[in-house]
Design brief:
Blueprint lengths: L1 H16 L14 E4 L2 E4 H17 L7 E3 L8 H5 L4 E9 L1 H6 L5 E8 L2 E9 L4 E6 L3 E5 L5 E3 L12 E5 L5 H9 L4 E5 L2 H9 L5 E5 L7 H13 L3 E4 L17 E5 L4 H15 L6
């Protein structure tokens, strides 16, 4: 089911990206609207519809609770989560700006959250023909459309001075630049979607990702699937103070200083970044 939904979503997005008629009867017009959290396109809405209908069709007798970026508007967490410890959290198009800019660094996220913690993470990166699966406690892997699998391969860069940091292309402020200056990483690599960033760590092409909230914060659907995927592979994803991310809170925000890494030096990274943030912005809640 997750394979079919993921590759179907990939087909829809790639058709829009190439200006072609998308499958499954969706309109070809890529209408774009701006809102407080960023642009929303017809591609976002089409994939959202595809995923929601897919859950209904594959499991007609199961009353799944499904929360997505596009259906969360106007709904309270209490309404979604009340008496339900299992919730699917979806991002139909993570990295909309990158999608519209043509960088190819966009992804679809599907996560199963139990008791405020993601336990299954699925990230599909259409332009790379990659479908990543992660089940916390059971491992993670990548496969293509032919179901040919490849394993996670973290880098062997053990010293922070040799590590490669991932940063957003479209979300970077003065504080993050100051933080990067204080931590002596070997280099910085700009990548779009959070799912694409975590996949870059899983391939061994980078080691650390830092999310630092500015005027807006990432939401549950931005982080849930990438976190579950990374943790299933043996990596780490936490606040800079070491505390875990907690999902399905009232505002659905994942605010603060969040750190994702391959895990080997995660505690040290948190300590260095936590201390640096106390100097850069003493009032910032990490």
């Amino acid at each position: 089911m997750l394979r079919n939904l993921s590759w179907g979503a990939a087909d829809i997005l790639m058709a829009y990206a190439r200006g072609e008629k998308p499958p499954y009867g969706f309109s070809k017009e890529l209408d774009i609207k701006d809102n407080a959290d960023g642009p929303v396109s017809a591609a976002d809405l089409a994939v959202n519809s595809w995923l929601l209908e897919g859950f209904k069709n594959y499991y007609p007798s199961v009353d799944w609770i499904v929360l997505s970026e596009e259906n969360a508007k106007g709904r309270s967490v209490d309404d979604v989560y009340k008496n339900n410890e299992w919730v699917w959290v979806l991002d139909p198009l993570d990295g909309t700006k990158d999608f519209l800019q043509g960088t190819g660094e966009y992804a679809v996220h599907l996560a199963l959250v139990k008791d405020h913690t993601p336990i299954i993470g699925v990230v599909v990166i259409p332009e790379l023909d990659e479908l990543w699966f992660g089940v916390v406690g059971h491992g993670a892997w990548c496969e293509n459309r032919l179901k040919k699998k490849k394993d996670v391969q973290f880098s062997n860069r053990g010293e922070i001075s040799k590590m490669i940091l991932l940063a957003s292309r479209n979300h970077r402020d003065k504080r993050l630049s100051q933080l990067i200056d204080k931590i002596s990483f070997a280099s910085i690599k700009g990548v779009g979607s959070v799912g694409c960033k975590v996949a870059t760590i899983l391939r061994g092409e980078a080691d650390v990702y830092i999310s630092l909230s500015g005027k807006t914060s990432p939401k549950d659907w931005d982080m849930a699937a990438p976190e579950a995927l990374l943790k299933a592979a043996g990596g780490e994803f936490s606040h800079a103070n070491g505390k875990p991310l907690v999902y399905m809170q009232k505002d659905l925000n994942q605010a603060g200083c969040l750190i994702a890494s391959s895990g080997s030096k995660h505690k040290l990274l948190c300590e260095l970044i936590f201390n640096a943030m106390k100097y850069i912005d003493p009032m910032f809640e990490v």
